[in-house]
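Quick one: structure tokens for this chain, please?
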Amino acid sequence: MPPVKRVLRTGVLGTATTLAGLLALAGCGAGNDTSAPPQPVPRPGRTATSVQLPPLHAGFDYQIGGAYAPAADVRVVSRDRSSSPARGLYNICYVNAFQAQPEERGQWPADLLLRDADGEVVVDKDWNEALLDIRTPDKRRRVAERVGRWIDDCADKGFDAVEPDNYDSYTRSRKLLTSDDATAFITLLARHAHARHLAIGQKNTAELAGLRSRTGLDFAVAEECGEYDECGTYAKAFHDRVVVIEYTDSGLRKARGAFGGRLSIVRRDVMVSTPGSADYVRRTR
């Protein structure tokens, strides 16, 4: 399968808040993680266990490159964690969870950056992002504590869900990370998100969609699944609770032709730019 194109991100660090409780660590993958269960902090209008899922087949806009007023047809919007949610809509909070953005690399402890046998940091060269080291239960716990603070910030701002990006970073790790490492780590994030009453989406990584019952993921955010004939995989695994971003007219046509009556689909420009930019594109047909 061709690599899925990923859009440019804003990479602004949001204001972190205190962790609501310790993360419950995953018992799957490479090693068994154990810790105290998270302590839920109820959000207004929600019970201690409630998580609101995104509506099915709803108007969608992908705004991780910058927030702006959604069109009248939009019911679901995804925005960077540095932004605020859109009033009255279902809001997904974008978090770069598996890689360190260039301007944030120095904020991570050196031993939490993935390194090769020569001690060199492993970098996703497309985005100049250092991969995070999630190979052991202890490192997963430490990385998850930091990402958990961002998730807390999303919850405190009033987002409904979180979108942790780069679940597929193990495929760019020079075989230093495994899919088991990735699923063990995202399970930690899912438990913490649920403790904060946020739904959590699987970002791309169609090959792991069938593991959703193990990981606790609630819906999918799929880039170019129409272009690469993957929408059916996500639709089956997540019972049509899928938001789709296509970056080409051909991808939009394919996604709409096969799943236009079932999934939430939008065509965006690859820069996910804001209105007024020369690159800005948003279409649903």
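The chain has five helices and twelve strands.
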